[in-house]
Structure formats: C-alpha cells, structure tokens
Amino acid sequence: HVQLVESGGGSVQAGGYLRLSCTASGPNRVGNCMGWIRQIPNKGREGVASGRFGSDEIFVADSVKARFTFSHDNGYQAVYLQMNSLKSEDTALYYCATDAVAPIKYNYWGQGTQVTVS
User: SS3 string of the chain?
Assistant: First the structure.
C-alpha cells in the first residue's frame, strides 16, 4: 500500500505563505496522478492542484492559480504546494492523495495537514 505523509501546515496571517510537502512510500507505486485536495469547514472538498505521472500536465484550481504553485520531484515520490498571499478562505485541512479514480476521488490519502489563515 502507498503511504502518504503531509507536512508544512500551520497558522499564518493573511498575506503570509506556507509550503506543504507530501512524501509517498510503500512497496508499490500506484496510480496515475498525485495532488492536493482541501476540506474547507462546512463545505465540501475541493481539488487544489495535481499532476499526472509521466507528463507535464498539471492542474491548479482557478481559485488559487495566481497564488499557489504545484511541484513534484522527478519520480512523484514527493509533491509540494507553495501557497503565497494566503487568504482566510484558504483555511482548510489539506490532504495529499494519489491514484485517482475520478475527480478528487483517490484511493490513497494522507492524514491531512491543517492550514489556518487569520
């Protein structure tokens, strides 16, 4: 099984920045893409950014495109989310996930890292 571990969340003031990291481990690397999904309080989940294995294809949600940058290492063993100019509406639990079966439906999820913007 793939294991995903996120880090880098925290509390910042509006206008600040954070960098989230996610590392993947496990005997078998599965899936076709890897990315970040956030759970906003009292709202549903939102796909934030993702990348497709073996291609340069990257998705970044329009709501964050001007402020967030998705990146990854060569083998997609790690993905990152640089979040700049953070807003209060970015407050959410951010999950790393891989092996998508449908939009924001993944087979493997990390435990989540909290981002709080005040």
Answer: CCEEEEECCEEECCCCCEEEEEEEECCCCCCCEEEEEEECCCCCEEEEEEEECCCCCEEECCCCCCCEEEEECCCCCEEEEEECCCCHHHCEEEEEEEEEEECCEEEEECCCEEEEEC
Closest CA to 98 of 3, 18, 15, 9: 3
Contact 93, 80 (CB under 8 A): no
**Per-residue pLDDT tens listing for the chain (118 residues):** 889 999 999 999 999 999 999 999 886 667 789 999 999 988 889 999 999 988 889 999 999 999 999 999 988 899 999 999 999 999 999 999 998 888 888 999 999 999 999 9
- Write the CA distances from 76 to 6, 24, 48, 91, 101, integer angstroms: 14, 8, 17, 26, 18
